[in-house]
Amino acid sequence: MDTNETMSVDILAEENFTTTGDECTNELPTVQEYLDGLTLPIAIIIAATVLLSIGTFSIFFKNAYHILHRTPKQFKTKSILLLTIYPLITLFGVVSISVPRAFFLCDTVMHVYFMICAYVFFSLCMQYVDGEDALIKSTDSQTFSLRTPPLCCFVPLFKRAPVTKNRLRFVRMLIMQLPVVQTALFLALNVVFVEDYPNFNRIILYFVPMIVISILLGVWGLNILVRMLAPLYSDLKLMGKYFVLQAVLILCRIQPLIIAAIVSSSIADCAFPNTLQVQKNAIFQLCLCFEMMVLSCWASLLYKSPSIIGPG
């Protein structure tokens, strides 16, 4: 190789190195690359999320023990399934930070389990009131209302109406579509993530409208349900139980956008393997694990006493 060729190779290598060092890449590191380039802040975040996850699991096992010994038999399984969401999210939060390439799979598991919990919550509410037939008999003539968030502005002409089988079926279908539709959409997105990651952020934009519409319809159904039952069965603390469940969706879906904006504007160093995506995900999972521990403590108070059947 002559001198000119050697100089050309050196210049190209220097340009590639500069590009890699100065620009943020979308590539996600392997576990080995991630561990080799692990920084102290990321290591501290991983340790903190592990501790928070252990704390959340401890709270969960305490709550589960209490439910198994003091809650009426017909409510035990569904109550524990709802409380499982908090330790599950912290567990997959730790996995997401530790294995960068698994972050979207972990996010999918969290998201789909929440959608399942939404329908479990509906079923638990029906058990609280001793079934749909008992609810119809016990409610007054003007209990059912479609004018609830987030779609209340789109149905201003609908007035309050009696509870009927068909209206309860409508609410059930609004909530039931959540686990079905969201699971299908996120499975498709996982295929895209694996097969075409460089274009993933562009392709996901076509899925966002369907995801958002499905979530809005499901949340609308849950709001109709809770606002219908909460005034009639105050001892069940349905509004509080619904809020600690709904907060999971808000924190998992809206909070990442806020954190991404803050991190993108404040962090300049994003050299591989600690890319911008890795840093955003680490900070988000740390916040989420702390919030899940707080929500788990709150949920333990709401599910602590045995549920009472009957109007409050």
From TrEMBL:
Keywords: Membrane, Transmembrane, Transmembrane helix. One of its GO terms (cellular component) is membrane. It comes from the Eukaryota. It is a multi-pass membrane protein. Pfam families: Solute_trans_a. It is found in: Membrane. This is Organic solute transporter alpha-like protein. InterPro entries: Ostalpha/TMEM184C.
